[in-house]
Amino acid sequence: MFLPKYPDTPTPPPAHTHTVADPATVRRPAPQISVSTGAVATVLVGGVVLTALLAAVAVTAISVAVAAVVLRSMLRDQHRR
Predict the structure, then answer these.
(1) DSSP 8-class letter at 26
(2) What number is the average pLDDT over the span 4-16?
(3) 3-state class (DSSP) for residue 8
(4) What is the DSSP letter of 23?
(5) Mind listing the pLDDT tens digit for each residue in 36-68?
(6) Any idea where the domains of the chain sit in the sequence?
(7) In terms of Cα–Cα distance, which of 39, 43, 18, 80 is closest to 72?
């Protein structure tokens, strides 16, 4: 039932023939990547702006956390009195 079925007459594998290609068609010039100065400046300015925004968010979060701790301690002192 699960035995493999082999062909009755074995056929040889097809012959592989190598053809030599013309070396001129095989060699391709490397693609030239030209990046303008404006694109580099835009990426740098964008990175600086995003980093500044991230720093602003971090400073804001820290200041809100400090204010929450101060308010909590002030309110705790009033409840004790």
Answers:
(1) H
(2) 73
(3) coil
(4) H
(5) 889 999 999 999 999 999 999 999 999 999 999
(6) 54-81
(7) 80
CB atoms within 10 A of CB 17: 5
The residue whose two tokens read 């925004």 is 53
Structure tokens at 17: 């023939």
Tell me the two tokens of residue 47.
């990175």
Tell me, what's the pLDDT at 62?
Answer: 97
pLDDT at residue 23, rounded to an integer: 57
**Rounded Cα distance, 78 and 81, in Å:** 5
Share above pLDDT 70 across residues of the chain, in percent, rounded to a whole number: 77
DSSP string of 28-77? -PPPP----HHHHHHHHHHHHHHHHHHHHHHHHHHHHHHHHHHHHHHHHH
Say which DSSP state 9 is in: S
Q: Which amino acid is at 20?
A: V
